[in-house]
Amino acid sequence: MGWFSKLFGRKWQELRTRGFAKSAANHADILHGWKFAATMKASTPLEWLLRHGETADAPPRVPKKFGTWVPVPGRIRKRGFLRGSPPSTTASQVGQVPQDGGELLPFLIEYRRIVETPDNGLNSLRVEALRERYPQYANLLDPKPKRKKRKARR
Predict the structure, then answer these.
(1) CA 125, CA 129: separation in Å to the nearest integer?
(2) CA–CA separation, 48 vs 39, rounded Å?
(3) What is the pLDDT of residues 71-90, one digit of tens each?
(4) Cβ proximity of 112 and 44 under 8 Å
(5) What is the tally of structural domains in the chain?
(6) Residue 11 forms part of a structural domain
(7) Would you say residue 48 lies in a domain?
(8) 153 in any annotated domain
């Protein structure tokens, strides 16, 4: 728990949640709603990856490590202020990807489906097939080698 939460406790969380709803109500002329952006990592659970792109009037709570809600501008885009701007991107484990997830999102969804199902002896074959289909993301399938600790010299 952070120092701010310790200092202000649950009241802060309640105010923050109400703040999202108030913000949407106060800025209805420019805010169209909220859109969920899942964290584009191999460790993000399938449940949250499947919700990527979901929209809501008032965003429900989400663990920060799995994603965040971002405001969706409404009339600004309709009025043409953002016309001609470059397509939005989002950060991921492999660098910038299109905001809709591009090819990475289907890869992560398929990978998490393999990982989260009980192992019946076929999971390793499925991972290898996934590696062949998405060679650009094969490095996400390899576990990182553990560093050996060096003994301190005296």
Answers:
(1) 6
(2) 8
(3) 887 765 555 555 666 778 88
(4) yes
(5) 1
(6) yes
(7) yes
(8) no
